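Illustration: D-amino-acid transaminase.
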Amino acid sequence: MASMRTPISETSFLVQNWSDHSQNSLIFSQNLSFSRHGFRCLQFGIVKLPFSRSNAVKNSSQTQSSTEIESTQISDVPLLSSTEVIERLRTSRETYKSKQQYLAMFSSVFGGITTDPAIMVIPLDDHMVHRGHGVFDTAAIMDGYLYELDQHLDRFLRSATMAKIKPPFDRESTRRILIQTVSASKCIKGSLRYWLSAGPGDFQLSPSRCHQSALYAIVIQDQSPSDHIGIKVVTSSVPIKPPQFAVMKSVNYLPNVLSKMEAEESDAYAAIWLDDDGFIAEGPNMNVAFVTKEKELVMPSFDKILSGCTAKRVLVLAEGLVRDGKLQGIKVRDVTVEEGKEADEMMLIGSGVLVRPVVQWDDKVIGNGKEGPVTLALLNLILEEMKSGPTTANDLTASIDISVLQERLTNMINLGAAHTRD
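Result:
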């Protein structure tokens, strides 16, 4: 039983040929091919393209004058070899800085794990890219442990069923792949994000000609400092997703993005959605909860919104606060805007924010305008549980036999090679 306490970051049960390549360039380059179509002498009169390494890459927050844009011309677009493309991808990665580091990625398309961020890419003809036919989920990594992986994985597979995507692996193999990807990353604190897509195949609307569904996973280490200071939220004017799509964790996040941008434009952290009946629903990627004046923890029902794994765990942990007399009860029900704004405490809950105090909603100060004691108590309970590591076999995220996974990946790679020869 002692092996159950070994963090993923300290295990080394990698497939031999994966671990032999620190950059995994060999595995990836064997699966890269670029057709030479002879596109030459193209004129771009209004777009500045960073073909030269000396050109600075501008991000979306930077602007160019109309004179600069109109005077820029590219008369000859280079035709690149696969080696040149990989090198330019790597150079492009080095030109911008991010608080997030990508430590490892698994792709069923190239059948392995890479630790080189420059080649953590997916095919453009993957239907998740151009049709939004994909689902995803995430799990936090704390002290080398994956937190509540099984709960997130179950939701992940439910979303796949609703999206009519048949996974390329069974549940146990998928779980092993995810764990092994985290192991390869050696991440101590971060997050694991993973996707199921209809897969690459063509640019049609129907996925009927997709060769096979695809599984992708990436380990992210966020270097941003933890921040649990109270935040401001606003009411979103962006229409909420219909329940059929809101309860599914799909990649169709444009409403969520627009809602987040709307909040940022108002110097707020997030925007709160209301359902079609005017009741409080959720944030763009988190649930919301309140502590009423009667000291009850109330949370909107999950029948029209995403069933948050962290939110459900908070409901369980809150039972301890009821026993300690800090709460009088816990309810999951419809919550009106008026009731929410008049609450003593308000909080956002999710795998990213964990439990984040809200001190202002629109122009209304929540409670006394400070982080509430119940909110902070719930945050501490979540953090303590995450840091304590697994306590049962169901939470075990290490010491896994990978023979089945290795066999499946080998068969998949051989199948892909056969299709390439055909």
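Reading the tokens back as a structure: The two ends are 49 Å apart (CA to CA).
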